[in-house]
Amino acid sequence: MKAALQSYHARMQRVLDYIDRHLGCDLDLETLSGVAAFSKFHFHRQFKAAFGLSVHRYVQLARMKRASHQLAYMDAQSVTDIALDAGYDAPDAFARAFRRRFGQSPSSFRESPDWEPWFAAFGPLDNARCMLMQKTFTTDDVMVRDVPPTPVAIMEHRGDPATLGATIKRFIAWRKAAGLHPRTSPTFNVWRSERRPVSPVDYRMDLCVGTDQPIEAKGEQIKAGEIPGGRCAVLRVVGNTDNLEPAALYLYRDWLPASGEEARDFPIYCQRLGFFAEVPEHEAVADLFLPLK
Questions:
Q1: Rounded distance, CA 256 to CA 261, Å?
Q2: What confidence score (pLDDT) does residue 134 get?
Q3: Which of 73, 61, 49 is nearest to 20 (CA)?
Q4: Which pTM value belongs to this model?
Q5: Is 237 helix (H, G, I), strand (E, B) or coil?
Q6: Could you tell me which residues are beta bridge partners of residue 287?
Q7: 25 — phi, psi (to 5°)?
Q8: What b/e readout covers 205-224, taking b as 16+ CB neighbours within 10 angstroms?
Q9: Nearest alpha-carbon partner for 14 in 52, 43, 57, 56
């Protein structure tokens, strides 16, 4: 029974991965049921039973999530190209659908995103993805590494995590202007507070880019700092890198007590190695670092 269930989940996971890779293509029931090797007459009911969303609704949300990331963070792509990439025949149809879902036009969202309705709109999609993408970590997934010190430029986010998207947008714009591309200058997030503090205003996170060059603020509040070197427990997360809390909980709750190690006096942090929407969401990669004594 367990082996059969694992096989069933693997076939459904194959469908989600295929959707991620082919968001700009025709994703009809016949194609997707073939990917899963299920009967096309039953697949739509099986999919909804597994994820709580119809296939059509899931694909719509996945396309719109990628489009919204492209609008907010990838200025080089035009609204027209993003609309066509999301499966719309014309920018007007995309604009109407986008406004219905988020209360903003695509151009307005690109200029000044309102993230509250964005988070609400994608709750069902994120819940669906988590049903199969919740990974169970083991000690074999954790490596202890000696990490060299890394000089970084830091943009601090302080305040409600719902406003983090605006800080990320400013950070991306600043690093582009500074010529610090992710392919040549590593990207780090350092958490200075709990993911969900009692008061949202107490949320604190540093957005960092590795550089040993002199820092030009270019109108932003940027400061120089360092991610210290030393021993770290490293856990790689592939896929759902928006929420690294399950991985962090595994390190703190399970791995650390059993390892006999002690945490060093520096916060847990991650290095982002593959970014959605530059890669399909299931291929996004982040390494989580727990500093050790």
A1: 6
A2: 57
A3: 61
A4: 0.80
A5: strand
A6: 236, 271
A7: -105, 175
A8: bbbbbbbeeebeeeeeebee
A9: 43
